[in-house]
Specification:
Keywords: Membrane, Transmembrane, Transmembrane helix. With about 190 residues, this protein is α+β, with helices and mostly antiparallel strands. The chain has one domain (about 5-30, about 40-190). Helix content is about 35%, strand content about 15%. It contains three helices and seven strands; from the N terminus they run E-H-H-H-E-E-E-E-E-E. The chain has helices at about 20-25, 45-70, 75-110; strands at about 5, 115, 145-150, 155-160, 170, 180, 185-190. The strands form two sheets. It has a four-stranded antiparallel β-sheet with strand order 1-7-6-5. The protein has a three-stranded mixed β-sheet with strand order 2-3-4. Strand 6 and strand 7 (about 185-190) form a beta hairpin. Helix 2 (about 45-70) runs antiparallel to helix 3. It is elongated.
């Protein structure tokens, strides 16, 4: 999914957005099947999220180990800060790329009517989602309208509440003619072509 980014400005419920009825008729909205779906998106969003957490923790440990080993290995003091900087920056960039991959898988699952990853708040892409005063991304999520499946075997953890629209890609209230990720509670500012 090729996406463009931008901050959402709040907005109406997806059903109130111009283009919703046309998108529904064309089959362009998230489809929540009557029966539990198969795990069609591999690797699953939850599986990638667990790898993301392991990479984050492992990267910190590896960077710390390198920093602690620089003196015993005889790395000159003038080289230590640049080595630390390059390692830290590389880890940071890779970390955000992995998080974006989790987001792509999550959005793909949501379009198929299920999720394997449930968040209370947060986002996947830098520069998207509402910001709090502290600058943290705190987009609320509401997954009640979609199937929640176990990421390993696909068994049902929670059936959808059919009275609630599921999260997923809907016609955007901010960019007419484009689709934007609705979290079930707010517009995330993640746009698909």
């Amino acid at each position: 999914m090729n996406a463009r980014r931008g901050r959402p400005q709040g907005g109406p419920h997806p059903r109130q957005v111009p283009g919703y009825a046309e998108a529904r008729r064309a089959g362009g909205l998230p489809v929540v099947p009557d029966q539990p779906p198969e795990l069609a998106v591999r690797p699953t969003a939850n599986g990638l999220f667990l790898r993301f957490v392991a990479f984050a923790a492992g990267g910190l440990v590896a960077i710390l180990a390198v920093v602690l080993l620089m003196d015993p290995l005889g790395v000159p003091g003038a080289w230590q800060a640049p080595v630390f900087g390059v390692l830290g920056l590389t880890w940071f960039v890779l970390l955000f790329r992995r998080l974006a991959a989790v987001g792509r898988q999550s959005a793909a699952e949501l379009q198929r009517g299920y999720t394997t990853l449930v968040l209370d708040f947060g986002g996947f892409w830098v520069g998207e989602g509402p910001l709090t005063l502290s600058g943290d991304m705190r987009a609320a999520w509401d997954y009640r309208g979609t199937w929640h499946l176990n990421h390993r075997d696909g068994h049902v953890l929670r059936a959808p509440d059919r009275s609630i629209d599921p999260p997923g890609m809907y016609p955007s209230p901010h960019r007419p003619g484009q689709y934007e990720l609705w979290t079930g509670a707010t517009w995330l500012g993640h746009y698909a072509d």
